[in-house]
Amino acid sequence: MLSKSQIGFIKSLHQKKYRKENGIFIIEGIKSIVEFIESSYQIHSIYYLAQYQSLLPNLPANIKLFEVNNAELDKISTLQTPQGVLALVHIPKSRSLDVSSLKGSFSLMLDGVQDPGNLGTIIRTADWFGFKQIICSNNTVEIYNPKTVQATMGSLSRVNVYYEELPTLLKDIKVPVFGAVFNGTSMYETKWGKEGVVILGNEGQGISPEIINLITNPVTIPRVGGAESLNVAISAAILCADICRNF
Q1: HSE on the CB side for 217, CA within 13 Å?
Q2: Beta-carbon count within 10 A of 120 CB
Q3: Which of 71, 74, 69 is nearest to 48 (CA)?
Q4: Residue 153 in 3-state DSSP?
Q5: Which residue in 59, 149, 153, 113 sits closest to 233, CA to CA?
Q6: Rg for the chain (alpha carbons), in Å?
Q7: Whole-angstrom Cα distance, residue 146 to residue 169?
Q8: Consecutive H or E run containing 33
C-alpha cells in the first residue's frame, strides 16, 4: 500500500513546478522504463502491478520498488489508461551546448514549439533518423512534461536536448543554418551537405523574426494540395528523411 504522502508526492510531479523543485519526472510503460534503465538516466523508484513484475529487468539495489494495485496506479498515473508500470526518474543536471558538437552532423533546432505531443514526436523522429541532439529555445515546452515523455516512446533516453538562447547561439555556430519556411528553396533542390542545424518554428506563428534573420538556407517542403500548413512534427520527419536520403 502506498501512503497518502507517497501518492501526493507522485501526483505533484504531474506539474512542472514540482518536477523542477524535486528534480524528478515520470515515465510510464514497461518499454520506455526499460530503455531508461539501460541509459545514463538515474531511476529513483518504480511502481508496478503484480502481473508486470516479471517484465522488469534486473535492477540496481538503489532503485526502490513498490507493488501497487489498480486503484493506486490510477491515482498516480498521468494517463487515462495506465500502462501497468510507472517510474520516477532523476532529471539530469542541465548542460550548455558545446557548439563544436554541431560540426560534422545535423541537429534540429526548435523555436517556440508549444505542444508537448509535438515535441515528444520530434524527439522520437530525431532518434529514428539518427539525430543525436535537439536544441530548443527557452520558450519551447518542457521535455519532462508527461505528454512529451510519453510521446517519445523511450527515445528521450538517447537524444540530448538543450535549452538555449537561440539568437545568441546562432551567431556563434559555424555550420549552415537551415530553416523551414514557406518561401524558401524546395527541399528537393536544397544541397544539404554533411552538417547543419534545421530550425522549425512555433505551431501557429512559425519561426520568430529575430531567428529568421539568422537563417542562411531557407527551405520549403513543396505543397501539392490545398492544406494551409503542416504539423511541425510531420515537417520535422519529412526534412529529416530528406537529409538522410542525401547523405
Answers
A1: 16
A2: 24
A3: 69
A4: coil
A5: 113
A6: 20
A7: 28
A8: helix 30-37
Rounded Cα–Cα distance for residues 31 and 19 (Å): 22
Instruction: Enter the C-alpha cell of residue 220.
Output: 520549403
CA dist 247 and 195 (Å) reads: 10
State the Cα–Cα distance between residues 204 and 151, nearest whole angstrom: 20
21 SS3 class: helix
In this prediction, residues 220-240 reach a mean pLDDT of 96
- The three cell numbers of residue 91 are 532529471
Mean pLDDT score, 115-139: 97
Comparing CA positions, the residue from 84, 78, 83 lying closest to residue 12 is 78
Does the pLDDT at position 94 exceed 90?
A: no
Euclidean distance between CA atoms 175 and 183, whole angstroms: 22
d(C-alpha 228, C-alpha 35), whole Å: 38
Residues linked to residue 198 through DSSP beta bridges, in sequence order: 108, 178
Residue pointed to by grid coordinates 538543450 = 162
* Predicted structure pTM score: 0.95
By residue count, the chain amounts to 247
Question: Considering Cα of 185, then 186, then 187, then 188, what sign does the dihedral take?
Answer: negative
Query: 94 or 55: whose pLDDT is higher?
Result: 55
pLDDT tens-place string over residues 16-41: 999 999 999 999 999 999 999 999 99
Phi, psi of 98 (to 5 degrees): -90, 110
Please state, in angstroms and rounded to a whole number, the distance separating the CA atoms of residues 30 and 147: 16
Nearest 5 degrees, angle CA 49-CA 55-CA 151? 80
DSSP symbols for 59-117? --TTSEEEE--HHHHHHH-SSSS--SEEEEEEPPPP----GGGGTTSEEEEEES---HH
